[in-house]
Design goal:
By secondary structure, this protein is an alpha+beta fold. It has a single domain, classed as GMP Synthetase, Chain A, domain 3. Helix content is 29%, strand content 26%. Strands 1-2-3 form a three-stranded mixed β-sheet.
């Protein structure tokens, strides 16, 4: 079952309330997205751990309801 971009954004914001989240549907199929997540929670944390935080926010939906997510994370400037 495909996910809506708004659902992905809501799940990320629930876990990272200050996050600025930009979601792009890459194919229009609800299965392939790109996401940019900017949060102060990423300060001083490795890129790998930042990505793990986002995947954790998706509560196991990756690989099931959400087939692919091209993820970029950043700290606010």
């Amino acid at each position: 079952m495909a996910m809506e971009a708004s659902e992905i954004e809501a799940m990320i914001r629930e876990s990272l309330p200050d996050a600025k989240v930009t979601i792009q549907d890459l194919r229009g199929d609800g299965d392939h997205y790109a996401a940019l997540v900017v949060s102060s929670a990423f300060e001083g944390i490795s890129r790998v751990k930042q990505h793990q935080m986002v995947y954790q926010a998706l509560k196991g939906k990756m690989g099931d309801d959400l087939h692919a997510l091209a993820l970029q994370t950043a700290v606010p400037e």
